[in-house]
User: Fold these one by one.
Assistant:
Number 1:
Amino acid sequence: METREVISTGLGLCIGRMTEHDLLEVVEIEEATGLSVWGWDAYHKELQSPEDVIMLVATNAMTDSIPGRKVAGFIISRLVAGELHINNVAVRPEVRRRGVGARLLAAVLSHGRSQAARLAFLEVSAGALSAVWVSSGGTAEGLLCSAG
Ligand SMILES: CC(C)(COP(=O)(O)OP(=O)(O)OC[C@H]1O[C@@H](n2cnc3c(N)ncnc32)[C@H](O)[C@@H]1OP(=O)(O)O)[C@@H](O)C(=O)NCCC(=O)NCCS
């Protein structure tokens, strides 16, 4: 069994690196959100280039109550020329509004800072997400916002 690299824990939530074992649940969450569909193959391909891509999942006690499910949400971002591009973030509908999205965003921003990223781009324009961004320590400047 592949061991997950844990990024942070707290408040019953564990944020760690996505592994191949998470992909079926990640695709399930993606399909439940109505996001543009990447699908298993695209996520799997991204997992093969860990140097510039950070793919995280949130697992927690909340999803333990959903039989057979471990992943509460996920986020995917890529570091390009000192810029952190956040491509995709989604949380299982059953466990929204409990801070999972905010923790995922905070974790990738922290990673970006550790890699000396100068800017972070949230490459979406969802109203809910801009609220999560502010709540997780972004600035009111909006979705295109400094990570530093
Ligand atoms: C956007 C999304 C990731 C948020 O995840 P979440 O775990 O519910 O977010 P959080 O619980 O961390 O929310 C933190 C704050 O963001 C704001 N927020 C979150 N969802 C919101 C909504 N639907 N409407 C208004 N504000 C919202 C609130 O201020 C919230 O704090 P509060 O609950 O204390 O009021 C989730 O709603 C989702 O998966 N949506 C579908 C996929 C999507 O649109 N992804 C973005 C495009 S890639």
Note: Residues 139-148 have pLDDT under 50 and may be disordered.
Number 2:
Amino acid sequence: MDSGVAARAPEKLCRRCKGSFDPSANTRLSCRFHPSFFVCRRHDDQKRYYELRDGDPPYAAKFYDCCGAEDPDAPGCATDFHRSYDDAQE
Ligand SMILES: [Zn+2]
Ligand SMILES: [Zn+2]
């Protein structure tokens, strides 16, 4: 039997969140990610990381630059369509 059109598109891999997704169910809310990087603030001497002092908020040393989340595994603070490796680079 000749089936030119697949009933279900194969899952694709998102290059932003590294998750697999169904292209036919890809919406603006599908992909959660951080638009900025997780940063570790260096101490002034550049040899060690900034150490928290009393009164410093916990995100003063390590955090996502976009939203201030301190946990590297924190869920993304922004959502958008998943982007597969097949999509054109912007
Ligand atoms: Zn964020
Ligand atoms: Zn994604």
Note: Residues 43 and 50 are 4 Å apart (CA to CA).
